[in-house]
Structure formats: C-alpha cells, structure tokens
Design goal:
Bound molecules: zinc ion
CATH superfamily of the largest domain: Creatinase/methionine aminopeptidase superfamily
Order of helices and strands: HEHEEHEHEHEHHHEEEEEEHHEEEEEEEE
Number of domains: 2
Distance between the termini: 42 Å
CATH architecture of the largest domain: Alpha-Beta Complex
Largest sheet: 6 strands, mixed
Strand content: 15-25%
Length: 362
C-alpha cells in the first residue's frame, strides 16, 4: 500500500483549499478507517498531521505498534493531556489554517482544540479522505476480494450444517468464530441471521428465535480481512418455502442481476438504482423496497459512493459497491440478494460468488 502517495495527494488537495495542514484524529476508533488508510496504523487511538512537516502521533500504549506499522513518518508520543500537547505542537509548526475531517471529529475535540490554540483556525472539511478512499487501488480490491471469498466460504460452511431448532444467535456466533478461525481480522459488522418474520427487517438483530421448518433464513454477513470488508446477503429456505417465496425470490434475483448489469464507470448511483428498482416496480412491489440499492465498501462496510435514489455519486473505475435489492413483507418474510462488485476499465467484476441462481432449500 502506497501510504505516502495517499498523504501526498491529500496534502495537494488541502493546499488547493488554502489549508496549511490537515489533521486526522482517531480517538478510540472515532476515525480509524481514515487514519489506517493514510498510515497503515490499526490501533484504536492516534493522529496524523498532513502538511509541510508531516507527523504521526499516538499515546504510549501504541508507540511500539506504530513503529512497526507506520512507515516513512516521524512518530511522536503525546502527553496525557493530549489535546493541549497537540495544540502546542501545531503552534510550533507555525500553521494558521488547519483542515479537520467534519464527519469523524467530535464537536468536543473541535472546540477544545480551537480553545487551546487560539492562533489557529480549524476549518471543518467534508469528506476529504473519504473521497480519496472511493477509488481503490488494485491491491485494495484484492483484499476486498479475499474478504468476499472468505465470506462465501463461511456461508457455505454454515448453510451445510443449518438445522431446525438452532437459534439465530447461535448460528451467527458459530459463523463469526469460523470467520476468525479462518483468517478474518474481525467481522465487518454484526452478522445478521434472520429467520421467518425476522427476514422482513433489513437490519435485524439475531435473537433467541429457533429456526423452524418452512422458514426462510436470511444471512447478511461479511468478514474483514487485512482491514477490508466484505458484505454478502443470501436467503435460504429450511424445507419447502412455498410458491410465493419462490416467486419473490425470482423477482429479487432479476433486480439484482439488472443492478449488476448496470454497473460501469460513468453511470450515476441513481441510474444503477433505477435499473434494479424498475424490475421490482414492474412486478408490482415498488412499495416493498424501501432502502437504497447499495453502498461503497472498503475499510468500512458503508462508505462512498452511494447507489440509491438520492445518490449524487457517479461510478468510477476502482469503486467497489454492493448491489442489494430486497422485497419485504413485515410480519411475514423478506428476501434480499446482495453482491459486491468492483467497477473496472472494461465494465465490472463481481466479487461475490456464492450461488444464487435458485433459492437453496436446506
Ligand atoms: Zn449486507
Ligand atoms: Zn450492504
């Protein structure tokens, strides 16, 4: 990973905006993905000054780890009153206008720094690092592909042993342990295992419900490998689910395929969304598909660009997004089919490979 090139590009953009420096502050994971993207540092707390005199800072818990992970930057250890220390440090650098990420810096940190360094103007910046992260380098796409492959394999493992009487919570926990045992650094998000009526809730929390014969079971899962996330949704049936579920499955699958077919550089997030949404609307279920079609995935499971009816984004080579149409009947069942896809120079590369051609009956 060429962290130095990323910092150089951020510094170029910061100068364009009339800034003397740009500050990334990660306090207990508040901005971990941006800091990791720019430095490789994976700890919970640290900071980066991008500018004429770049500097990585962290506290004594992480000095040794930073020495291994952070290459090509001086590293300094903050004192216990780290905001006062940082304000002094910025003062000694002689910077006057300092950009600071608006999305991930707390109002408290922002106001304290402004109070402690009255000679410095801190200027909130929208999405500067996040914009860089949209376009993935080949080595980032390979890490996402590795996370997607592990996610596919984990789903295969858990589906093969799925049985009536298992609770959603146990199934989710077994799968999480499997991911970690097979190379995941973490799960990309709280795994969703939703059975029966729970499958109608897009962000369900697995609970004590026991899987029953005749249920649909929705898995929305992802492993995180070397920092990068995967995101996959499949629905399987525990025994014969009946004709209605099979029909809805076919419609959602057609929408998923229409969405994937629409993915290419230059297409707007709105247009890709519409390609899939039209399939569901033409089948008469437009009021059953409430969420956007997809989202970017990378160091975080939800990042830019967005793929939805209100998206302002245009797809570019190197973007990685999900395509996840769904149809939901509250209190009864829901079906969603989600794949990860990378935008390439000659079209798109689907990174998810778990079978979806027909509803799998366990
Ligand atoms: Zn998902
Ligand atoms: Zn998703």
């Amino acid at each position: 990973m060429d962290y130095a090139a990323r910092r150089e590009e951020l510094w170029r953009r910061a100068r364009e905006r009339g800034l003397d420096a740009f500050l990334v502050i990660n306090v207990e994971h508040s901005d971990g993905a941006n800091l990791r993207y720019l430095t490789g540092f994976s700890g919970s707390t640290g900071g980066l000054i991008v500018g004429a005199q770049p500097l990585f800072v962290t506290d004594s818990r992480y000095t040794e780890q930073a020495g291994h992970e952070v290459v090509g930057l001086p590293i300094e250890e903050t004192k216990p009153r780290w905001m006062a220390w940082l304000a002094d440090k910025l003062g000694s650098l002689g910077v006057k206008r300092v950009g600071i990420g608006a999305h991930r810096t707390s109002v408290y940190v922002f106001q304290e720094l402004a109070r402690l360094a009255p000679g410095i103007e801190f200027v909130p910046q929208m999405g500067m690092v996040e914009d860089l992260r949209r376009v993935k380098a080949e080595e980032e796409i390979e890490r996402i592909a590795a996370a997607a492959k592990l996610t596919d394999e984990g789903l295969r493992w858990i589906v093969d042993r799925l049985a009536p009487g298992q609770t959603e919570r146990d199934v989710a926990l077994d799968l999480e342990v499997w991911f970690r045992r097979h190379g995941a650094e973490a799960v990309a998000f709280d795994l969703i295992v939703a059975s029966g009526p729970g499958s109608a809730m897009p962000h369900y929390r697995p609970g004590e419900r026991k899987i029953e014969r005749g249920d649909l079971v929705l898995f929305d899962i992802g492993a995180q490998v070397d920092g990068y996330c995967a995101d996959l949704t499949r629905v399987v049936a525990m025994g014969d689910p009946g004709g209605e579920a099979r029909e809805i499955y076919r419609i959602v699958l057609a929408a998923n395929r229409a969405g994937l077919a629409a993915v290419r550089a230059g297409k707007s997030g709105k247009d890709v969304d519409r390609a899939a949404r039209d399939v569901i609307a033409n089948a008469g279920y437009d009021d059953r598909f409430g969420h956007g079609l997809g989202h970017g995935v990378g160091l975080e499971v939800h990042e830019a660009p967005g793929v939805g009816p209100t998206s302002e984004d245009t797809l570019a080579v190197g973007n990685v997004v999900t395509i996840e149409p769904g149809i939901y009947f509250p209190g009864r069942f829901g079906i969603r089919i989600e794949d990860l896809v990378a935008v390439t120079a000659d079209g798109a590369r689907v990174l998810s490979s778990f079978p979806k051609d027909e509803l799998i009956v366990c």
